Amino acid sequence: MSTFVYMTRCDGCGHCVDICPSDIMHIDETIRRAVNIEPNFCWECYSCVKACPNHAIDVRGYADFAPMGHSVRVRREEEKGTISWKIKFRNGKEKNFVSPITTKPWGKFIPKLAEEESPNQGEINSQRLYKEPNGLNIDGDLPTISKETFKKGVYY
Amino acid sequence: MINNNPFSGLSDLVSPLAMQGFVLLMIALVAIGTLIDIIHKKNVKYFFNNAKKAKKSATIELSATQRTSVILKTVAHDIATTAELGRGKRRVAHVLGMYGTIIFWITSVLLIFSYPTAGSSTPSILTTMWHAGAIITCLGGYWFWLFLRVDVLAEAHPWYRIIKADLFVLALLACATFGLAWSFSQYSGMTGLSYFFLILYIVSNLILFGGVYWSKFAHMFYKPGAAIQKNLAEADGSRDNLPPPAEAPQQFGLGIKREQPKHY
């Protein structure tokens, strides 16, 4: 299930908008609070849940470890460098975990795209992704698989 | 100019009773707008249902004294200093706008009800506070609207893009700005211009107080309630199902410094 926002807690700070890798957390134009504009495209990465300073975002945990009727919530304390998880199962059982924050600061390992050169038209039209193949640390060209190695009976 | 009571100057044109009636009408509009908002959105119903649910999972039974203490702390810290917004420019801008508005409104009511006629000598402290309130409101409000609101800061929209959520802040800024302009033009003897700004001041007041149902005006009633509920939930152990604060070494993980949300 995709993320959702508790309106009484959200103050519209924009941290979830900033961090969402799917670019689906946006600011509602009527109430200026965060909203998931495309729940189908949410991959439940918990980035916004962890980033929210007001604990205003929630998302149901994966069904394989916690069946329906439960709650999975996160408290991120940057000053301590901790991230705490609380799982409350539907039978009332609780599990608490504390882990160190391992998130890297912005720009340290994530490329600062604003400082990179813009791709030329040929690179834009190409089927390759940005910075391929150099970004993959590959010398030369991208590896390919010859059609002969495909399974017999499967036609492309 | 700051010693000018614009309402007493207006008494030649409009009777004090009409001005006082206008204030009462604005208060009634706020009450009606908030009530319709509550009925339509069912937010208060949701809020109390949620609070009841949270109470069930409480681990500590709070005494009346403990509850009062939590509420007082919330009022003094969360509400009075808008602690929800964390440390930073947004909080400073909000505090400026909030206190500016409160001073502006209270002094407006005092000036209209106590010193509405031209003959009455208005204490300079009141007129100074009225002007200061309007200026502080403008300071915090324009700072927020031009630079700090999330649409501009985190979403990279231009400052001039106006959406429905701007209705409250723009109407409030219009009230303060046109109020100041009206007072200045009246003080400078620019009669035509003073009437022009007076009309704009009245219209912006009507939009601000009459548009409660469509604007974010009612957040000033809901947010304090939500802050009290949040802190009571922390105190009684229910914590809205959140995990308790970690008992960890002083520095457990990387503990990265939170950056401004503007990596668009």
Strand order in space, largest sheet of chain A: 5-6-7
How widely separated are the two ends of chain A?
Answer: 35 Å
Radius of gyration of chain B: 22 Å
Sheet-strand content of chain A, in percent, reads 15-25%
Q: How much helix is in the residues of chain A?
A: under 10%
Low-confidence stretches of chain B: none
Number of helical segments of chain B?
10
Spatial shape of chain B:
globular
CATH class of the domain at 1-59 in chain A: Alpha Beta
Q: What gap, in angstroms, lies between the N and C termini of chain B? A: 45 Å
Query: Helix proportion of residues of chain B, in percent?
Result: 55-70%
What does this structure look like?
The complex is a heterodimer of chains A (156) and B (264). With 156 residues, chain A is mostly beta strands. Chain A has a domain of 59 residues: Alpha-Beta Plaits, CATH 3.30.70.20. Chain A has three helices and seven strands; from the N terminus they run E-H-E-E-H-E-E-E-E-H. Chain B has 264 residues and is mainly alpha-helical. Chain B has one domain. Chain B has ten helices and no strands. The radius of gyration of chain B is 22 Å and the shape is globular. The termini of chain B are far apart.
List the helices and strands and how they pair.
The complex is a heterodimer of chains A (about 160) and B (about 260).
Chain A: E1 4-5, H1 15-19, E2 25-27, E3 34-36, H2 47-51, E4 57-58, E5 71-77, E6 82-88, E7 94-100, H3 121-125
Antiparallel strand pairs in A: 1-4, 2-3, 5-6, 6-7
Chain B: H1 6-10, H2 16-41, H3 43-56, H4 64-79, H5 89-114, H6 124-148, H7 150-153, H8 167-187, H9 191-210, H10 219-235
Helix pairs in contact in B: 2-9, 3-10, 4-10, 5-6, 6-8, 8-9
